[in-house]
Specification:
This protein is mainly beta. The protein has helices at 2-15, 22-25, 37-53, 217-220, 382-385; strands at 28-29, 32-33, 58-59, 66-71, 78-88, 97-109, 112-117, 135-136, 142-143, 151-152, 157-161, 168-175, 179-187, 191-194, 197-201, 205-216, 238-243, 246-249, 258-268, 279-285, 291-297, 302-303, 321-327, 334-344, 346-351, 354-359, 364-374, 389-392, 401-405, 414-420, 425-430, 433-437, 441-447, 451-454. The chain folds into three domains: 28-148, no CATH class; 157-306, Sandwich (Immunoglobulin-like); 321-454. The chain starts with a helix and ends with a strand.
């Protein structure tokens, strides 16, 4: 009986799948055996610990972060990189990402190939990096790259589609002339459902969710898409989210031009390491006239100084006020219509054959009026008539014209004027004058009564 038990045990042992080491399965790269594969894994994991500590990636998933070889061919042929994870690159979705760690060949002998671990290739904010094929370790474990959703660790931040989930009301707005961000909802859930599964926070951090409305004026406003520009195009602003101990850039390619997204992130729990300090939405206007603005989340309280004009709405998409005007024959009266008004700090203007970005002086704002002519001759001469377009402030002073933008018409497409930050209305008119226009020659321009342009927004 004892012999029968022994025989059965030997048969069972022969049928079981054994744990293996690199030597047993023969990990190969380019057909050569990989030497000291366990040491490569350990050194890559030490390198990745710095990446985690600096917040370039966040822990996620249910397993500890470790480094794996990726099978790329028959038997145990592996990739020239180790893949470390599961992690989450801030700004991506809630699913797991992997950080590639290149391996450099330092020696090749008859016994195999000796490799050296290189610095991790951390994906850019909002960019994913995922291996193809099965992942293997020298201790015999095998896994797949898709680990689903598990526990979110410190520095986790995901940008997810807004599917209309219920959040608490919130109100926080920050804008410049190219980008406007509005927090309209906020929550502190224990669990957050995603398309990949339920997301929970690991011990020591808590989940936060905010609904963010995004409006990219730099993409939807044609003024910023004119060419050519003096020196360089206006640089896009850089949005970010401040949490205690960390600033997370919000990747531009994950944000809509006009729409809403959900930002799901973690913060240290009260009383824990790194706790304390407000959460804040940040907007950096970059370039020669840079500016940083911060508003607390979810209260919307302004943190620090910000131009008063940027605490106001930029203006409606359309409006319509008109003033009479005649060009040449006084009896042929047309009109010049103001079809849009925008208040801000920076506006594109035409200068010496190129566009440039005009910036308001401290304590002032820039008012842009866009025009459309009706019943006036159509000639290319708007640079001649720009100086006749007059804006008068409530105190009776004439606003300084900072610049204009021109098209193929008698009058400019837009005029830009310097106004007080708190201005609530101006009057607009066409001053009388004599100009020289193509095809028409020297003609008189006659305006009519000034019209009020409301700016109470």
């Amino acid at each position: 009986m004892r012999w029968l038990v022994l025989v059965l045990a030997l048969v069972a042992g022969g049928c079981a799948t054994p744990a293996f080491s690199a030597e047993q399965v023969g990990l190969t790269m380019g057909g050569s055996a990989v030497l000291d594969a366990p040491g490569l894994q350990a050194r890559a994991e030490a390198e990745l610990s710095y990446t985690l500590s600096f917040g370039y990636v966040a822990r996620t998933g249910t397993d500890a972060v470790s480094c794996w070889f990726a099978r790329t061919g028959p038997a145990f042929e592996v990739d020239t990189r180790l893949w470390c994870g599961p992690v989450q690159v801030p700004g991506t979705a809630a699913a797991t990402d992997w950080v590639p760690v290149p391996l450099k060949e330092v020696e090749r002998t008859g016994a195999g190939i000796r490799l050296e671990v290189q610095p991790p290739q951390v994906p850019a904010q909002g960019s994913r990096s995922t291996p193809v094929g099965k992942l293997v370790r020298t201790d015999g474990r095998v896994t797949t790259a898709d680990q689903g959703v598990g526990n979110a660790g410190p520095d986790f931040l995901a940008v997810l589609p807004d599917e209309g989930q219920a959040l608490d009301p919130a109100s926080a707005t920050v804008r410049d002339d190219q980008l406007e961000l509005q927090v309209t909802g906020y929550s502190s859930p224990a669990v957050w459902p995603t398309a990949e599964g339920d997301l929970r926070a690991e011990h020591g951090v808590a989940l936060r969710v905010l609904r963010l409305r995004v409006l990219r004026h730099g993409e939807t406003d044609l003024a910023f898409r004119q060419t050519p520009w003096h020196r360089w195009l206006p640089q896009p602003p850089e949005p970010a989210l401040d949490v205690p101990g960390r600033r997370h850039p919000l990747p531009a390619d994950r944000l809509p031009d006009d729409g809403t997204v959900l930002i799901v992130y973690t913060v240290p729990v009260a009383g824990g390491p790194g706790a304390g300090g407000p959460e804040a939405l940040v907007l950096n206007t970059v370039g020669a006239k840079s500016l940083e603005q911060r508003v607390a989340v979810p209260s919307g309280q302004v943190v620090g100084d910000a131009p008063a004009v940027l605490r106001r709405a930029p203006g409606p998409e359309t409006m319509s006020v008109s003033t009479p005007v005649s060009v040449g024959a006084p009896e042929q009266v047309g009109s010049l219509e103001v079809v849009r008004a925008r208040l801000g700090r920076q506006r594109p203007v035409w200068s010496e054959g190129q566009y440039e970005l005009a910036t308001a002086e401290p304590g002032t704002a820039l008012l842009e009026l866009r025009f459309r002519g009706h019943g006036v001759p159509t000639v290319v001469g708007s640079w001649q008539t720009a100086g006749l377009l007059t804006v008068v402030l409530p105190d009776g002073k004439v606003a300084r014209q900072v610049g204009a933008r021109y098209g193929g018409e008698t009058f400019p497409v837009a005029g830009v004027y310097e106004v007080p930050e708190d201005v609530r209305s101006v009057t607009f008119s066409v001053a009388p004058g004599t100009v020289t226009l193509p095809q028409l020659g020297t003609v008189a321009v006659t305006g009519g009564a000034a019209v009020e342009v409301p700016l109470d927004f």
